[in-house]
Amino acid sequence: MAHLELQLYEYNRWANQQIFNRLKELPEDVYRQKIQSVFPSIAHVLAHVYLSDLGWIEVFSGKSLNQSLMLAEQLKEQTQLKEIEEMETMFFELSERYKSFLHQDEHIDKPLVIENPSGDLKTSVSELVPHVVNHGTYHRGNIAAMLRQIGYASAPTDYGVYLYLKTK
After folding, report:
1. Residue 124, SS3 per DSSP
2. Can you tell me where the transmembrane regions are (predicted)?
C-alpha cells in the first residue's frame, strides 16, 4: 500500500472488524439494547456508519451527494433492522468495494465537486478518505462509550495499536 489513504482505509476496515469481533463475544441482546446515548443502540450506530461509508463510495464513483443521501435515507430502516452477522457481511463487502476502488491509482487523485447549497466543495478522493476514516473512528468511540455505560469493555481500535499489530 503505497498511499497513506490506502493504509488509513485498511486501518478503518481492521478497526471495524475489531468492533464486530468484540460485539459477537458479548450477549446477543447487547447489539440492540436501548441505551441513553447519542444513538438509541449500537445497531443504530453501525447502520449510520455503514450508510455514511456507502454514501461516500457512491460519491467517489460519480453519484452526486444528493443522490447518495437519498440512497442512505431509502436504506436506513432496513439497515437498522439487520442482525449483527448481516451487518458484518455488509461492512466486509463494502470494504472490498473501497479497496478495489482505491487500488486504482487514477481514483486516488480524482477531482470531485461536492455540490452543496452553501457552496460547492472542490476536493479529491484522497482528501476525503481521511474523512471517511475519521468518521468511523468517531463512531467507534461512541460504541466504546455505550459498551462501558452498560458494563462491558470495548476492543482496542487505536491507529497506533493497528500499526503495532501490523508489524507482528
Report:
1. strand
2. none
Q: Label residue 44 left, alpha or beta by phi (over 0 means left) and psi (-120 to 50 means alpha).
A: alpha
Based on its alpha-carbon atoms, the radius of gyration of the chain, rounded to whole angstroms, reads 16
- Give CA–CA dist 37/39, Å, rounded: 5
pTM of the model: 0.94
Contact in structure between 102 and 110 (CB atoms under 8 Å): no
Q: Give the domains, in start order, of the chain with CATH numbers.
A: 4-27+36-167 (1.20.120.450)
How is residue 30 annotated by DSSP? Answer: G
Q: Which residues contact 3 (CB under 8 A, 6 or more apart)?
A: 102, 108, 126
CA distance 84 to 87: 5
